[in-house]
Amino acid sequence: MWIYQKTLQHPVNIKNGDLKMAKNLITQFGGPNGELAAAVRYLSQRYTMPTGKSKALLTDIGTEELAHVEMIATMVNQLTCDASVEELKKAGLGSNYAQNGFGIFPSDANGVPFSAAPIAVMGNPVTDLHEDMAAEQKALATYYHLINLTDDVDIKNTLRFLAEREIVHYQRFGEALMDVYDYQENKRVF
């Protein structure tokens, strides 16, 4: 079903380590509004979409969100790769190191592990698509917050790319919602 290309969707080339930013950025990996939650949400919701177009869209965007997971993990890795254990402790990442070493573990910025709890799958296409649009807006807001937390141009460029993709996803979910409304009206299903 998927073909994996061994390149990132957008290049990630962070030249300077920044442990505090890595701690903040991890929320887009495993936090409630992050990319992993979005991928699981969309790939789960696709099964109850009533049209081929809406199913395909959720599959496409869910797959792209997995690419974003990879980008965020790459960013965190580049921000932390040369850190010592003492530096990790000083930046508030000591407990993460104790549990995961230098591994990239899906959690939020406070270290709370990834949870499926915020993933909404109602089985109602209209409800799910509205949830998806809200999820994209929350992710967009988070990217803006992260951009405000750094002066590093390399980090900002990647975050801006990811923010732009959230806007596109929001628009595409709006198109899918119209497709579902058209389907329901033609089938008189409400």
How would you explain this protein's 3D organization?
- The protein contains 8 helices and no strands.
- The protein is mainly α and 190 residues long.
- The protein has a single domain, classed as Ferritin, core subunit, four-helix bundle (Ferritin, Up-down Bundle), CATH 1.20.1260.
- The model has no long low-confidence stretch (mean pLDDT 95).
Give the secondary structure arrangement, pairings included.
Blueprint: H1 19-25, H2 27-30, H3 35-45, H4 52-80, H5 85-90, H6 94-100, H7 125-148, H8 153-187
Helix pairs in contact: 1-4, 3-4, 3-7, 4-8, 7-8
Mind telling me the CATH superfamily name?
A: Ferritin, core subunit, four-helix bundle
Give a count of the beta strands, DSSP E runs of length 2 or more.
0
Q: Number of domains in the coordinates? A: 1
Overall pLDDT metric: 95
Shape: elongated
CATH class: Mainly Alpha
Number of helices: 8
Helix share bin:
55-70%
Distance between the termini: 32 Å
Strand and helix order? HHHHHHHH
Assembly state of the chains shown: single chain
Radius of gyration: 18 Å
What is shown here, in short?
This protein is mainly α and 190 residues long. The chain has a single domain (19-187), classed as Up-down Bundle (Ferritin). The protein is built from 8 helices and no strands.
What structural keywords apply?
mainly alpha, 8 helices, elongated, 190 residues, 65% helix, Ferritin, single chain
